[in-house]
Amino acid sequence: MATYVFTSESVTEGHPDKICDQVSDAVLDALLSADPDSRVACETVVNTGLCLVTGEVTTKARVDITAIVRRVIADIGYTGSRAGGFDAHSCAVLVALDQQSPDIAQGVDEAVDHDGDPLDLVGAGDQGIMFGYACNETPELMPLPISLAHRLALQLARVRKNGTLDYLLPDGKTQVSVVYDNGQPVAIDTILISTQHTAQVAGLRQAGAIRDHIRNDLWTHVVAPATADLPLKPERSTTQFLVNPTGQFVVGGPQGDAGLTGRKIIVDTYGGYARHGGGAFSGKDPTKVDRSAAYAARFVAKSIVAAELARRVEVQLSYAIGRARPVSVLVDTFGTGQLRNEQLMELVQQHIDLRPAAIIQNFGLSTICAERGGRFYQDTAAYGHFGRTDLQTPWEDVTTMASTLRQTALSC
């Protein structure tokens, strides 16, 4: 298939599922800031006028979860007349958190396969498979469709919050279709933006006129600035630009749809361009390999591409609950590697420690919340966990490791 179109989507921070991800991660931030040894599995549900926080937590920290919930919802923009039936200050907040199962704790706190090495003492918090991916399509080494979809969603939120487009409301989605020729992006075929808005826009009341007005505004204030520094830009004459295809988008947020933590796992990762192990990230402390090992897998893949040892890499890791060392490590360059896949796997296992305790230590995942003023994971919960240029995430800092891998590879 020499020529094809690939599509990825993103959502704004006001999407119901993303509200939940941010609440769950804000709770995680607060608990880890006060007690870096906290064990957290926090799930959130939102619906009209209701936010439920549930799950399992073991911690010495004491935090006001209700206050955290209201702060997050208010920061997103669900307040007052613009709340759309879901107001941060008046919604019901229910908290139902239990303690972590001791059966799980015993395997995490002391791995069954430890041999005295301190980094062997922490076992994986669950079994599972995790994937990491990187490619040379963008400067951040991410696939172009998801990278552009995130850019559009983030810019959509910016122009809402700074008042440039004061009729926008918090809920929104973006979708980008990119044309590929022989595996390389050559054109942007379609951009779709669905954005919640007030019932009246610029004095207009007729749905068609409102949509045309929003469409022109979004091209000028969202699409153009979000793509200004890209070598491959959408062209107004050739790129299909769809806005609110149903006609209008007034009812949105939790009033329009219930939200749940962990339902946007493809948005959180690679936009469907790479495989996914199925585990969500938000609300989970770093002993949960669904999160920490996925970060490590991205670090491995990005290091290989940054070292120019391959143009495209997918990494799979697997773990067993209570065991420190990965059950398996797989590297696939899809035929783009400078070395055989087996050689790259040897390089990875030689230079990158993939035990949970090592991942946590090397990335500072238990202490990073306190070090950054009590907020870190919440910011990863919207607009993607990978390829972020607006956040300093440790798994994206591959300069040193890429150099190490390249030097070792050249000496082989």
Structure explained in plain terms:
This protein has 3 domains: 122 residues, 2-Layer Sandwich (GMP Synthetase, Chain A, domain 3); 86 residues, GMP Synthetase, Chain A, domain 3 (2-Layer Sandwich), CATH 3.30.300.10; 160 residues, GMP Synthetase, Chain A, domain 3. Helix content is 35%, strand content 22%. The protein contains 13 helices and 11 strands. Strand 7, helix 5 and strand 8 form a beta-alpha-beta unit. The longest helix has 20 residues. It is flat and about 70 Å long. The two termini are 35 Å apart.
Radius of gyration: 22 Å
Q: Give the ordered list of helices and strands.
A: EHEEHEHEHEEHEHEHHEEHHHHH
Number of H/I helices: 13
Name the CATH architecture of the largest domain: 2-Layer Sandwich
> How much of the sequence is in beta strands?
15-25%
- Using the coordinates above, name the CATH class of the largest domain: Alpha Beta
GO molecular function: ATP binding; magnesium ion binding; methionine adenosyltransferase activity
Protein name: S-adenosylmethionine synthase
Main location: cytoplasm
Binding site for Mg(2+): 17
Describe this protein with a few key phrases.
single chain; alpha+beta; GMP Synthetase, Chain A, domain 3; four-stranded mixed β-sheet; 13 helices; flat
In short:
Keywords: ATP-binding, Cytoplasm, Magnesium, Metal-binding, Nucleotide-binding, One-carbon metabolism, Potassium, Transferase. It is an enzyme of class 2 (transferase). The chain is of the alpha+beta class.
Layout of secondary structure:
Layout: E1 3-11, H1 16-34, E2 39-47, E3 50-58, H2 65-76, E4 92-98, H3 102-109, E5 128-135, H4 144-161, E6 168-181, E7 184-197, H5 207-226, E8 240-243, H6 253-256, E9 259-260, H7 265-268, H8 289-306, E10 312-319, E11 328-332, H9 341-351, H10 356-363, H11 368-371, H12 377-380, H13 399-411
Parallel strand pairs: 3-4, 7-8
Antiparallel strand pairs: 1-6, 2-3, 2-9, 5-10, 6-7, 10-11
Helix pairs in contact: 1-2, 4-5, 8-13, 9-13
